[in-house]
Specification:
Strand content: 15-25%
Radius of gyration: 24 Å
Mean pLDDT: 94
Order of helices and strands: HHHEEEEHEHEEHEEHEHEEHEHEHHHH
Helix content: 25-40%
Largest sheet: 14 strands, mixed
Structural class: alpha/beta
Number of strands: 14
Shape: globular
Distance between the termini: 60 Å
Low-confidence stretches: 8-22
C-alpha cells in the first residue's frame, strides 16, 4: 500500500514537472515570435519621431494634446484594432502665458530666468523677502516655524549635498504644499542639472490651482541666490499669468478580448501627454509609443490571450494622474474594478533588463516569465524586485488595491538631465533600446495574460495601508491629499 502511494505521488510530481516544462516551452515559443516581430517590424521609434514632427508637445487640454489623442487613435485603428475608443474626461486645464521674476535689493531688482510650475494661479503678484529653506522638507520648516511666513521661499528641487543622512526627498508638489502650510507667499525651486536647464511639472498633485506662485530656476541661479541670501537680505518679486479652467481630454483605449477569461483584464498603460517646454520625447513619448507598438505586435502576430488586454494611452498624467484617475473612477462607477487583475505601467521605460511589481507575491510568476525572456535573449537578466512608489499612472490603481508592475531599465544621464525640461527632444531616443522596451514588455504582457493563475489578488484596504507604510509613502500621500486611513 505504501509502495502504491509512493508511485502515485511520484507520478503526480512527474506530471507537474512535465506540465511546467510544457508551459515554459509554450512561453518561449511565443516569446521568440514576439522577438522576431519587434526586431524586424517595430514602428515605435519612427512613429514617435513622426508625431513630434507633426504635432510637437502633447500638453493636456491644448490643441496639440487633442491632435496627439487623435494620432494615437488613428494609429491603433490602422494596426487593425476594431475595439478602440476615446474615454473623455474633464480636467482643470492649465497653460503658461507670462512670468517675470526679479530678485535683488530695494531699488536694484534684476530679472532671473524662470519657468512656472503647472497648476500655479491664473494670475499672481507676490513680493517679499526671499528666504532659504534648504531642501524644502518639513524638518527645514519646523526648525523655525515662522521663518517662511509672509516670505517667498527658495528651496532645492533635489536633496542638497551634505543633507542629513537618511533624509528623504519630496515631490515638488509636496514642497509647494509645505510652503503654503507654513504661510509662504510663493516658492522658487531650483534644479540640480548644470547648464541653466529649466524644467517644469505640476506643483499640485490634485490638479487644483495653488494659492501661491510656484516656479523653477536653474542650478546656477539657485546657488547664486543662496549665496546672496547668506550675505544679506534679498527681495523677490513675481508677476505671473496663466490660462486655467475646465478643459476636455481623452484617454485612448484599445482592447483585445480574452479567449478564456474575458472578464479578467490586464491594463497596459503609458501616459501620452507631455509638458510644453519640449516635445516630451523621453517623458513620455518613449513609454506611450512603446505601448502603442506593443499593441501593434499583438495584432500583427494574431495573439489571442486568455485574459482581456486593454492598451491605454492616458492623458493628464503630468497635471496629477488625471487620466488614470478618470479610468479607475469609470471602472468603479461601472462596477468593473474587480475585473482588473493587473496594471502594467510604462513611464519613461527604456531598455529593460528586469521586471518589477508592487507585491512580493508576484515574484514566482514574474521570474518564470523573465527566465523565458532570457532564454530568447540573454541580454535580458530576468531579475525581479518588489516595491511601491508614487507619481505615475499606476498610483490610482495601486491605491484601489490592484497589483501593479512593469519592466525596469535605464536612461542615459543626458536623458535624465532633461526630465520635464526644455531639452527633452527626439535626439535623446535610442532606437534599439526602444525596441528592447517593446519586445521584453510584450513578453511580460503575454505571460500575465496567459498565466494559468495570477498569484496576487486585489488587496484589502488594510493591506493597502500596510503597503504604503512599508514603503514610507504616508507623508507624500498626506501632502497630496490621498491618505485616507485616519
Amino acid at each position: 500500500m505504501k509502495k502504491y502511494g509512493f508511485l502515485l505521488l511520484f507520478s503526480y510530481l512527474l506530471c507537474c514537472q512535465r506540465l511546467a516544462a510544457q508551459q515554459q516551452f509554450d512561453l518561449e515559443t511565443v516569446f521568440r515570435q514576439i522577438n522576431a516581430e519587434v526586431l524586424s517590424h517595430s514602428e515605435a521609434y519612427t512613429r514617435l519621431g513622426e508625431s513630434i514632427q507633426q504635432i510637437g508637445h502633447r500638453l493636456t487640454g491644448s490643441p496639440n494634446g487633442s491632435k496627439a489623442e487623435q494620432y494615437a487613435f488613428d494609429l491603433l485603428k490602422a494596426y487593425g484594432f476594431e475595439d478602440v475608443a476615446f474615454q473623455p474626461f474633464t480636467v482643470n486645464g492649465w497653460a503658461r502665458e507670462s512670468l517675470d521674476l526679479r530678485i535683488g535689493s530695494s531699488g536694484n531688482m534684476q530679472p532671473v530666468k524662470a519657468v512656472a510650475l503647472a497648476s500655479t494661479p491664473a494670475s499672481a503678484s507676490a513680493a517679499g523677502e526671499l528666504v532659504d529653506m534648504g531642501n524644502g522638507l518639513e524638518s527645514d520648516y519646523t526648525a523655525n516655524p515662522d521663518k517662511a511666513k509672509g516670505k517667498i521661499v527658495l528651496a532645492a528641487l533635489n536633496l542638497l549635498p551634505g543633507s542629513p543622512e537618511g533624509a528623504k526627498n519630496l515631490h515638488r508638489s509636496a514642497k509647494a504644499a509645505l510652503a503654503i502650510k507654513y504661510g509662504a507667499k510663493g516658492i522658487i525651486l531650483f534644479n540640480s542639472v548644470a547648464g541653466g536647464t529649466l524644467l517644469t511639472g505640476t506643483a499640485s498633485i490634485t490638479g487644483d490651482l495653488l494659492t501661491i506662485p510656484a516656479l523653477c530656476v536653474g542650478l546656477e541661479d539657485g546657488n547664486m541666490l543662496k549665496s546672496r541670501i547668506a550675505e544679506g537680505k534679498q527681495e523677490a518679486a513675481i508677476e505671473m499669468k496663466n490660462k486655467a479652467g475646465k478643459m476636455q481630454a481623452r484617454n485612448v483605449v484599445a482592447r483585445i478580448t480574452g479567449s478564456e477569461y474575458p472578464n479578467e483584464k490586464i491594463v497596459v498603460g503609458g501616459h501620452l501627454d507631455s509638458w510644453d517646454l519640449s516635445p516630451g520625447a523621453v517623458d513620455n513619448g518613449l513609454g506611450a509609443f512603446s505601448v502603442i507598438d506593443m499593441a501593434r505586435t499583438f495584432k500583427a502576430l494574431g495573439i489571442k490571450p486568455k485574459r482581456t488586454i486593454e492598451f491605454v494611452l492616458f492623458m493628464g498624467e503630468e497635471q496629477g494622474l488625471l487620466g488614470s484617475k478618470a479610468y479607475v473612477q469609470h471602472a468603479v462607477s461601472a462596477g468593473s474594478l474587480d475585473q482588473i487583475r493587473f496594471m502594467l505601467n510604462f513611464d519613461m521605460t527604456n531598455d529593460p533588463k528586469s521586471y518589477h511589481a508592487t507585491l512580493e507575491g508576484s515574484r514566482t510568476l514574474f521570474e518564470e516569465i523573465g527566465r523565458s525572456a532570457s532564454m530568447v535573449d540573454t541580454t535580458f537578466k530576468g531579475t525581479f524586485a518588489a516595491s511601491a512608489g508614487l507619481y505615475s499612472d499606476h498610483q490610482p490603481f495601486m491605491l484601489q488595491g490592484i497589483p501593479t508592475g512593469g519592466a525596469g531599465g535605464a536612461l542615459s544621464r543626458e536623458a535624465l538631465n532633461c526630465y520635464h525640461a526644455d531639452c527633452d527632444i527626439f535626439a535623446l531616443i535610442n532606437e534599439q533600446q526602444m525596441r528592447n522596451t517593446v519586445r521584453f514588455s510584450s513578453m511580460l504582457i503575454y505571460g500575465l495574460a496567459n498565466a494559468d493563475a495570477i498569484p496576487v489578488k486585489r488587496m484589502s484596504d488594510t493591506d493597502i495601508k500596510q503597503l504604503m507604510l512599508d514603503n514610507n509613502l504616508e507623508e507624500s500621500l498626506r501632502l497630496g491629499g490621498d491618505w485616507r486611513w485616519d
